[in-house]
Amino acid sequence: MEKPTDPFHEARVQAGVLPAEFQGRPVPMILRHEDVRKAAKDWQTFSSDAPFRVPIPSEEDVRSMRQLPVETDPPDHTEYRDLVEPVFRRAKDPAMVARVGSIIDARVRAAVAGGTVEVVRQFALPIQSEALAVLLNVPESEAAIWIGWGTHVFRDGGNGAKKGAALEEYLHSRFDRAEAAPGEDFFSLLSTVEFRGRRLTREERMGFANLAFAGGRDTVIHSISSTLAYLGRNAAALPWLREDPRRIVNACEEIFRHVSPLTHIGRVCPVDTDVHGVAVKAGGSVSLCWASANHDATVFDQPGEVRLDRKPNPHMAFGAGAHLCLGAAHARLLLRTLLQACIDQVGRVEVLAAEERVEDEASYRRVMGYESLTVRLHPHTGNPVAA
User: Fold this and answer.
1) Number of H helices, E strands in the chain
2) pLDDT at residue 4 tops 50
């Protein structure tokens, strides 16, 4: 994780914007921290009311519904978001914190006992799926289905079927069950809650659920994998955290900043707009580049370095403004719990093999996470696993 991770440096310093193209469409990328922050808060100029076009690349070919609440603007966004906030606030509930702790402790213990582990699919993917089951209050056995979809539900698997089809089929079946026998889970909430005096349509429910399963999947996996790779390549980090576990909070924020597991997000300009000298016609797209903003040297001293004690740390790994990531508390819980489990059980992380995941676009090439990462977790002295 100490390798250069900022392909936007030159354009950010010189112009503040990088003219880019995705799927044949011009998409200028806003790069500077303050400019990205302002744009994220200015939904009238940079709108999210653009189904399928908020993610970059756009997702017309992988899903059939608008993702909610992310692909709306206020006031719709605010009211939609309020419906599901209670679900995502559960990440701070002591009972859920304890359950996630048990999941991660068990996974770390098994990895230590097993000698070696491939982190991306054998460790990070199961943790992401099992913890999501807890968050959504569904049987943890459901996680086995989700694990089978691979690290990205729109890219992996499918056996020739339409991308994303397995997810949509699964979500429809879950909503059928929730309508027939409502419970206390995420699907039942969406099936019974009211929006402006009416029940949500099936398409609206599918939009919420699609985002819950697709939005934080690969980003959480990349964050977990990058964390273990960092610990493996920086032997002093784990003992330093063990000296004072309160350091974990700032360390996690720095890892999220440096990794920036989502490079950018799209917005659409309702009218002709000048984006730092680049003309965008009405209906055209722009990119809010979180990864660039998080390496802006005018905000972060030596941004290419990982400083686990960095404070303040106004990173935008979870976005900014009204669309601040709903799953931020959940992601923080997972990473903090992972570091605590490593403090308790792992003496040293040894990286045995790594294949980086590369986002290779015409305008930039960015390393983000791993396609595969094999490590050995050596037991912490005195840990029962070592006995």
Assistant:
1) 15, 13
2) no
Question: Residue ranges of the alpha helices (H) in 29-75?
Answer: 33-41
Q: Domain 9-151+216-386 belongs to what architecture?
A: Orthogonal Bundle (1.10)
Nearest to 80 by CA among 204, 211, 216, 266: 204
Closest by CA to 215, choosing from 366, 94, 325, is 325
355: enclosing H helix or E strand: strand 346-360
User: Lowest-confidence range among 149-153, 175-179, 342-346?
Assistant: 149-153
**Which of 86, 90, 81, 87 minimizes the C-alpha distance to 195?**
81
Is pLDDT of 379 > 70? yes
Can you tell me the distance from the alpha carbon of 220 to that of 227, in angstroms, rounded to the nearest whole number?
11
- pLDDT value of position 162: 60
344: exposed, middle or buried (Cβ count in 10 Å: 0-12, 13-18, 19+)? middle
Look-up: residue for tokens 């690969």? 218
Q: What stretches of the chain show up as alpha helix (H) in DSSP? A: 9-14, 33-41, 76-89, 94-114, 119, 125-136, 143-147, 165-180, 186-192, 202-214, 217-233, 237-243, 248-259, 290-293, 328-345
| Contact criterion met (CB below 8 Å) for 28 and 18 | yes
C-alpha distances out from residue 242 to 306, 341, 343, Å: 18, 10, 5
Locus of tokens 């302002």 = 38
Domain residues of the chain, as ranges?
A: 9-151+216-386
Q: Give the pLDDT confidence of 248-260 residue by residue, as tens digits.
A: 999 999 999 999 9
Q: Please give the mean pLDDT across all residues of the chain.
A: 94
- The rounded distance, in Å, linking the Cα atoms of 240 and 353 is 25
Is residue 322 a contact partner of residue 74, using CB atoms and an 8 Å limit? yes
Rounded to whole angstroms, the Cα distance separating 223 from 38 reads: 26
Give SS3 for 273.
Answer: strand
d(CA 66, CA 55): 11
Mean pLDDT on 95-122: 97
Q: What mean pLDDT is predicted for residues 360-382?
A: 94
Q: pTM for this structure?
A: 0.95
Structure tokens given for 67:
């993702």
User: In what helix (H) or strand (E) does residue 346 lie, and over which residues does it extend?
Assistant: strand 346-360
Q: Is the pLDDT of residue 382 over 90?
A: no
d(CA 69, CA 81): 6
